[in-house]
Each structure stands twice: as C-alpha cells, then as structure tokens.
Amino acid sequence: MAGCAGHAKGVMKPVALSTAIPHSSTVDMLVATSRAPSGDPNTLFSGERSPRPYLTDIAISIPPNRKPGTLQWPKKLPPDPKTDFAVTRVHELHSIAEGRAWFSQHTVDGKVLVFVHGFNNRYEDSVFRLAQIVHDSDAHVTPMLFTWPSRARLLDYNYDKESTNYSRTALETALRTLSSDPDVKDITIMAHSMGTWLAMEALRQMGIRDGRVNPKIRNVILASPDIDIDVFAKQFVEMGAPRPKFTIFVSQDDRALAVSRLISGDVYRLGAINPADEPYRTKLERAGITAIDLTKVKTGDSLNHGKFAESPEIVKLIGTRLVAGQPLTDSDIKLSDDITAVIAGTVKSVGTVAAKTVAAPVTAIENGKTTEPKGPDIEDTLKSDPQQRELTN
C-alpha cells in the first residue's frame, strides 16, 4: 500500500515525445481485457466486467538511468518521459484480423510472452508492470497482457476471485487465437498471484476440450501462485498430457499469501510452500515441476509478493532462461547463495533454507496457537486419471 501511495493515478492518456530522449526505450504490447471500458482516456478500462473482450495496442516509454526491478510511476500528470514510465500510444483494435496484423508487425522470432496479473491491480498497474518486466529481463519476445476485472481494492478479494472465473474462457480464447496465428511459434505464459488461478483454469479448460494444451504453449511460469495446493494438482492433471514446462516461484515470507491462506480456511497456498521439504520436493520432481525458492531474496516489496519482478537477478533469469524455454541445471543457477531450486532431479543439493510459517502470526491471533496443520499430500491427485468417473460403481 505504501508503495502506491505517492504516485499519480489515471496515467493511460498518451503523452507526446517532442524530442528523442537519449538511452530511453519503448515497449510495445498488445493488451486483451475482459474489463469494461471506463469512458475515461486517463484510465481506459475499469474494474467492472465486460461480456465482450477488447484489444488495445499500447506503447510505453521507459526512462533512462533507472535501477532494474523498479517502476518509475509519475508523481504528477502528465508524466515526464525523462524520469517516468509514460504511455506514448493507445490504439484500439477492432478484430482478430487487426490483432494478427499487429503480431505480424511486432513478431520477435515468433516468441510471445503472455502476462496475467494478480489481485488488486488496476489496468494501468498491469500495463506498467509488464513493460518493466519485458524491459528489465531483456526477453526477446512479443509481449501480450491479459488483464481481468480487478477492482483494485483490498476488501474486494472475493470480487476479484470471481472475476478470474468470469474471465477464464476469454483467456482460453485469446490463447487459442494466438496458437492459431502462423506468425506465433512459441508461447510462454507468466501469471502472478491470483492470476495464476485464471491461467491454470484457462489451460485446464483447453485441455478438457482438446485432450491437451496446445503444443505452442511450451512454458508456464507461476509467480507467488495464490492457489490451493490440492486444486493446483487437480488442474495440472486435468489439462492433459503432454503438458507445458511448469516453473513456480515461491516464498515462505509472502505476507499476501499468508492473509489469503487465513481467509481461505487456513488452506496452504502453492506460492508459500518450502519446496525443499517433503512431500513437496519429491512430488514436484516426479511431476517435472521446477520450484524456485525466493524466500531469502530481498526486494523493496514490503509484502514479499512481487519478488519475481522486483529482483534484478530473477527478472534476468526469466528473460534469459525461462522464457527461452531453456532447462535450468545446477551449474546454471548462479544468482545468489540465497536462492534454492528444486529441479526435477538436476539439483542434488537444495540448501538449508528453514521452513518458515508465514501464517503463524495470523494463526496465533486467530486461535491462540502456532501449531501448523499437516500439509496436503498431493501425490494421489497428481497420479489420478484426468477422465471423469461415475460416482457409483
């Protein structure tokens, strides 16, 4: 909350660049949304739901002389492109054909990064965050944002969660449209927080319809996934096989997921597990899921919920390795001694990161004790038959 308090809101109205700014850069992105239009050029879209999707071509100017992992919000309007992130172009597209033409003009070796934001995000929040990730990661991809109807209010958690359910077919349709584009060769999905639920549900729907996820979707990155672990295992199985390569970023000190766990009936969230602990280590390895533990990585995020985007090393890892679909091995991970990785049998030593209980203070307030419930055993779910069975013999 403190990180957002000092900057201007309503920054989507384009500013003109009168002269070239040395060492600045521009990120072009295609934005698909299930949000309703706001009718205000400063915000473009609201947190309410739309029965039809919208496509917008947007360009963001990135200021020079900034630290990777940071996002320079304007303190006043209009933004100053010399010091601030600034929108320089907004152009609504009206058809799939226009969307295909956009990809044809902006293709980068046929690789596309689709970003799905998390809880408590305005339209502009997700636009600027994707621009920062793409720029700082130096990922050679064409960026596409899918932004769903979040009211961006802390007390609207349930509304936001239902908005992800409302939007899953829209995201599935967007992914299908991308996959059928001959200019698109390789798709990476990166989702954050509550957006990981939406991404998993869209992929699960695709798998149920077609028997598997489209083979162009090769890589799925889930950052701080706000998903019940049992439910994730079920979604993973029901999307069919073969599946994309999955990587999850977790952190046991994620305060946002601690609160989510509390209001979700004290159910473990996937993004807060310790992947070095059993049963998670063995089960993730068997499923071929890469888990990267960011617990000891320090950023300016007081909630420890956005480390994947705010740590320069992690952002670079996303751009140079994960988005490229390259496997991670023990010798490749040299980010810092504080990062623990569990990688499908390739990392032999997972370090000595202690399993911390991020929800313990909240649990203590709630019931006067800090005893942890036993974590769920997901092995049976991960091995289960994705086909529906009759309820009776």
Please describe what this structure looks like.
The structure is a single chain. By secondary structure, the protein is of the alpha/beta class. It is 31% helix and 20% strand. It contains eleven helices and ten strands. Strand 6 (186-192), helix 4 (195-210) and strand 7 (217-223) form a beta-alpha-beta unit. Helix 2 (123-137) packs across helix 9 and helix 3 crosses helix 4 (195-210). The longest helix has 23 residues, at 157-179. The model is unreliable at 1-5, 329-374 and 388-393 (pLDDT under 50).
Structure in a nutshell:
With 393 residues, this protein is α/β, with parallel strands linked by helices.
State the main characteristics.
393 residues; alpha/beta; globular
Per-chain topology:
Layout: E1 25-37, E2 45-62, E3 86-93, H1 96-106, E4 111-116, H2 123-137, E5 142-147, H3 157-179, E6 186-192, H4 195-210, E7 217-223, H5 229-238, E8 245-250, H6 255-263, H7 280-287, E9 290-293, H8 307-310, H9 312-322, E10 340-342, H10 360-367, H11 379-383
Parallel strand pairs: 1-5, 4-5, 4-6, 6-7, 7-8, 8-9
Antiparallel strand pairs: 1-2, 2-3, 9-10
Helix pairs in contact: 2-9, 3-4, 4-5
For the report, how would you describe the main beta sheet?
A: 10 strands, mixed
CA radius of gyration: 20 Å
The portion of residues assigned to helices is 25-40%
Order of helices and strands: EEEHEHEHEHEHEHHEHHEHH
Unreliable segments of 5+ consecutive residues? 1-5, 329-374, 388-393
Q: What count of helical segments does DSSP give?
A: 11
Instruction: Determine the structural class based on helices, strands and strand pairing.
Output: alpha/beta
**Shape verdict:** globular
Q: Please, what is the average pLDDT?
A: 81
Share of β-strand residues: 15-25%
Number of strands: 10
In the sheet with the most strands, the strands line up as 3-2-1-5-4-6-7-8-9-10
